[in-house]
TrEMBL record:
GO MF annotations, alphabetized: transaminase activity
This protein's name: Aspartate aminotransferase family protein
Family to which the UniProt record says this protein belongs: Belongs to the class-III pyridoxal-phosphate-dependent aminotransferase family.
One matching Pfam family: Aminotran_3
Obligatory cofactor(s): pyridoxal 5'-phosphate
InterPro entries xrefs: Aminotrans_3, Aminotrans_3_PPA_site, PyrdxlP-dep_Trfase, PyrdxlP-dep_Trfase_major, PyrdxlP-dep_Trfase_small
Taxonomic classification: Bacteria, Pseudomonadati, Pseudomonadota, Gammaproteobacteria, Aeromonadales
Superkingdom of the organism of origin: Bacteria
Keywords: Aminotransferase, Pyridoxal phosphate, Transferase
Gene3D superfamilies for the chain: Aspartate Aminotransferase, domain 1, Type I PLP-dependent aspartate aminotransferase-like (Major domain)
Amino acid sequence: PKSPLQQLDAAHHLHPFTDSQALHHKGARVIERGEGVYLWDADGNRILDAMAGLWCVNLGYGREELVQAAEQQLRRLPYYNLFFQTTHPRATELAASLATLLPGDMEHLFFTGSGSECNDTVVRMVRHYWAEQGQPERNTIISRHNAYHGSTLAGASLGGMKPMHAQGGLPLPGIVHIDQPYYFGEGGGQSPHQFGLQRARQLEQKILESGPDKVAAFIGEPIQGAGGVIIPPDSYWPEIQRICRQYDILLVMDEVICGFGRTGHWFASEYYGLQPDLLCMAKGITSGYIPLGAVAVGARVAQGLISGGEFFHGFTYSGHPVACAVALANIAVMQKERLVERVHDDIGPYLQQEWASLGSHPLVGETRGLGLLAALELVADKSDNRRFDEDVGAGVICREHCFELGLVMRAVGDTMIISPPLVIGRLEVDELITKARQALDLTYQTLMK
Ligand code: PLP
C-alpha cells in the first residue's frame, strides 16, 4: 500500500524521466535524508548512493561547509543578477577561481543555472561568434548519437537519445549526429585503436557532407555518462582534435559529469590532452547542493565575444550568488582535502581494481572505468558476449536487486553504471562491490529461472 506521501505524490506530481504508470502502481521511492555516501528512505533503510545523486554529490551529503556558505550568502545578498554591467563578488571570485583550474587558455566564464542551459548557451554562443567573424552560414553543430546534453530544446537536440528526439520533433535544424565510440557494443572485431580512429573520422565525413564552411562546432562528453559510461579508445580524442583544427571547427567539451575531479583530474580534457574552445560544467561545481552551471570560454571565442557587442543571452539565475558561494566553498573543500589527487592516486585506482573483479561473474561481459566512473556490461552468454533480448530488461532487474540490497546503481539498457561521491572510503567501496556482486547473483537467479 502507498503511504500518504506516496498517495499525494501520485495525485499531484509529474516526475522527470519516469514511467508515470509504473509510479502510480508502486508509489515513488521516498528519500528523506543523506549523510556522507549514504541515503535513508522513508522506511529507514540505509542506501549506499553509488551514483552521487545524478553524478553530482561529489562531496557527499551533509557537508556543513557548503551549508554555511549558502546560509551566509543568503543573509548577505540572497539574489542579484549579472545583467547590464553588474556583478556581485561571489560570481567574479568564482570566475577567477575557475580560470585557474581550467585547462589551456580558458580564462572567461559565462554562468548559467544548469547543464542544459550551458549547452543552449553553447549553441547560441558559437553561432554568435561565427556571425561576428563574418561567417553566419557556419551554424551547423555536430554531436553524437547516444550523447546526453540535457533536456531543453537545444540540449535534447544536441543529445543523441532517440526516445527524446521522438517525443517532440527533435533535433532542431542545424544539429547533426555521428556515431559514438562504444567499443564493447559496436567495435565489430576491429582493434580498439582502429575503431577509435574510424569513429573519429566520421566527424570528417560529416564535415565534408555538411560543407566545411557550414560547420560551427563539434560537441562531446569526454566520457559519455548517461549513454553508459562510454570510455573512448585512446586514439579517439586526438583524432577528433586534429580534425577540428584542420577544418577550423570549434571543439566543445561537455564536462557536466566529467568535470570537478570525477576522472582524477579537475577536467577530463586534461586527461585526454584536449584544448577545447568551450567547456561546459554543472553538477559537481556545487556538489549538486544548489543549481549552477558555467561555460568556460577559451581566448579565441572570448575575444570574439568581447569585441562583438552585446550577446543577447542570459538567465535570471545565471551565477546566482548563493550558488556561487556554495561553488567557492566546494572548491575550497576539494583543495583542502586534495580530493582530485585522492581520486587519481588512491580511491580511483582502488575502486577500479575492485570493480574489475566483478568481471569474473557469469553475467558480466566487460568492466571498464576511469577515476570514480565505472560500468559493466550484462551479457546472456559470456563466451561470445551475446546480449539479452531487450524485452528481458536485465539491467532494470539488476538495478531493482541493488535497491533491495541498499545500493543505488543505474541501468542504461544492460549496462550497469556507477559514479560515487569523491569522498567514498575504502570500506564503502568494499561494501559497494559486495552488494553489486550480490545483486548480480540475484539477477542471475531471476534471469535463469
Ligand atoms: N550534459 C551532460 C553531460 C549531462 O550528463 C547532463 C545531465 O545529466 C546535462 C548536460 C544536463 O544537465 P542539467 O540536468 O543540469 O540540465
